[in-house]
Design goal:
Distance between the termini: 40 Å
Helix content: under 10%
Order of helices and strands: EEEEEEEEEEE
Radius of gyration: 14 Å
Largest sheet: 7 strands, mixed
Structural class: mainly beta
Strand content: over 45%
Shape: elongated
Number of strands: 11
Number of helices: 0
């Protein structure tokens, strides 16, 4: 019912910047919190940042002051501005949204995008 499409990944030098975008389509009115996660090869997937529908943001300690998450509810899009990137932040970055199933139970599901690769060279 909801599909996510990430974009903006690529190759960047250490200290550089990238902006990731994630566009949701389908039953977008039922989307609540949106966020970004990342997974490096051989490592656990970790939270990067989340943002509520009202705009309250939460960040991993490692990215505070360098990354900014934002959303445009009218466009059903969440962004991640990444500045001062470090080589250890090379990973596949995934968009995730919390989606309320439009049935009588009102269950919340986590919907994941396919990911976009960010490579930070040293």
């Amino acid at each position: 019912q909801v599909q996510l499409q990430e974009s903006g990944g690529g190759l960047v030098q250490a200290g550089g910047s990238l902006r990731l975008s994630c566009v949701a389509s389908g039953n977008i009115l039922n989307i609540n919190t949106m966020g970004w996660y990342r997974q490096a090869p051989g490592k656990q997937r970790e939270l990067v940042a989340t943002i509520t529908r009202a705009g309250t943001a939460n960040y991993a300690d490692s990215v505070k002051g360098r990354f900014t998450i934002s959303r445009d509810n009218a466009k059903s899009t969440v962004y991640l501005q990444m500045n001062s990137l470090k080589p250890e932040e090379t990973a596949v970055y995934y968009c995730k949204v919390d989606w309320v199933v439009p049935d009588i139970r009102f269950r919340t599901l986590e919907i994941w995008g396919q990911g976009t690769l960010v490579t930070v060279s040293s």
